[in-house]
Every structure is written in C-alpha cells, then in structure tokens.
C-alpha cells in the first residue's frame, strides 16, 4: 500500500499545473489530510497549483480536522500565492436562474 501511495504522490507531483477544485466540499479525514499535505509539500516552490474553495482560510482547520496541519498547508499554499476572491452569485447556476426568469 505504501508504494502505491508514494506512486500516486509522484504522479500528481509531476504535472506543471495541478488544479484542485472545491477544497472543503467533502469532508477530509486525518489520514487524507496528511496525504494532502504531502502532495502540497512535494509541489511547494516547484510546480503550480490552483485551489478553489468557498471556505475561508480561517475555517481550514475544520476541513483538515487539525489546526497545525491546516496551518502547515496554508503556509505552503499562500507563500508566493495570488489569491483571487470572487464575490457574487454562483457561475454554475447562472444559466439555471436565467431559465427560471423566462
């Protein structure tokens, strides 16, 4: 099992750009949070990673169920980062809302 995990980390670590959508949408248990940290750490200052979430950074300890781990992840994610805060209605449901108006 350990070799498979190491192999998967290397797999996701090799891409020039990795996009991880909707951090916090689904619960992340402690073991998965540790793996996520390993992935972020592996890519840190070497490759580009885009993360999307509707969870504030202050709430990340709840996502990863560990304040120290969440802070370590955020430390790496936010260092050299460009944070884009998008405010407004959901882009995904805009077409649906237009249909309701018609």
From TrEMBL:
InterPro entries: IstB_ATP-bd, P-loop_NTPase
Molecular-function annotations in GO: ATP binding
Chain ranges of the IstB-like ATP-binding domain: 4-97
Transmembrane segments: none
Domain of life from the UniProt record: Bacteria
Gene3D superfamilies assigned: P-loop containing nucleotide triphosphate hydrolases
Pfam families: IstB_IS21
Protein name listed in UniProt: IstB-like ATP-binding domain-containing protein
Native organism taxonomy: Bacteria, Bacillati, Bacillota, Bacilli, Bacillales
């Amino acid at each position: 099992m350990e070799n498979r995990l190491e192999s998967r980390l290397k797999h996701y670590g090799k891409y020039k750009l990795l996009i991880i959508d909707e951090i916090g949408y689904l619960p992340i248990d402690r073991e998965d949070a540790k793996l996520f940290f390993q992935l972020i750490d592996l890519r840190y200052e070497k490759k580009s990673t885009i993360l999307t979430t509707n969870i504030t950074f202050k709430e990340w300890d709840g996502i990863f169920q560990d304040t120290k781990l969440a802070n370590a992840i955020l430390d790496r994610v936010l260092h050299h980062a460009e944070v884009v805060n998008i405010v407004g209605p959901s882009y995904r449901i805009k077409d649906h809302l237009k249909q309701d108006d018609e």
